[in-house]
Amino acid sequence: MTPATIVAEPVLQVTSPHAATGMTLLEGPTFDAQGRLHLVDVTAPEGAPKLLRIDLGTHAITPLLTTGAVALTSAQWGPRDGRLHLTDYATGRILSVTPDGEDLRVEFSGEVEGRVMRPDDLAFDEDGTMFVSDSSPTAYPGAAPKGRVVRVDGATRRASVLADHQPNPNGISLEPGGGALWISQLDANRIDRLILDPERTRVIAGHTAIHVDGGASQTDSNAIDADGNIYQAFHGIPRLQVFGRHGTHRATVVVPPEPRGLDSATNLAIRPGTRDAYMTVSGPAGGFVHRFEALAAGVRATNGG
What we know:
Radius of gyration: 17 Å
Number of strands: 27
Largest sheet: 9 strands, mixed
Strand content: over 45%
Oligomer: single chain
């Protein structure tokens, strides 16, 4: 089977490189109940928009959060409280705000089994339990992997480690039905499948499910649609790859050659109940949103993370 090539259409430019950081990096796209797209800029300095909302009809961009020594890397709506949850790589916390970016709260902070997290991406189950990729770069060739997959209980907010010794986990998605997590390992260019017990409190089995030929690029965030297809984003090249749940490479999503200066497609969201998909694309040219038609409808697992 030859993978299909899907060309994503540019929608709008959202950000330009910041003078203070020398770059911009869009992440964490997610739709609210009104169909507005929220996303974060990982590298935004103090005073610049760190969380933004886009009206896709008018292309109006509204800054929602501009302050705080934070590096926001993903966004996901809480199923129990309707708040937008944000991973803060800089402090190891999980934060939340209202849909308008107000009432900033700390949902989780502190050590997890002796170490502060570096939360990269986030997935929820329907009970409000969070599954977090705890990033830790692996210094090749000799260092042992130290990344983790962390569970934060929806009722008690107690955290536990589901998987340790991971080669820098990044993308994390709960598959339809909630029986397993799909984890993209940034420093190994692979996607692992971790099978959970019925209560989703521990990993009972797991394996490397998909090897990715990334070359100079690395596996970043991921998402899963209603049919169980895995959409794998990349840091280092502006493209996505779509795999079936049994590893078949079904499609590659690319962006047009112009504008030049786009070198990453870090994440995507599919509007729940539709095939309307949007990806965040960044590089020296700025931060952009591109649109494409997904292979199947979006679900909670495809709307942020």
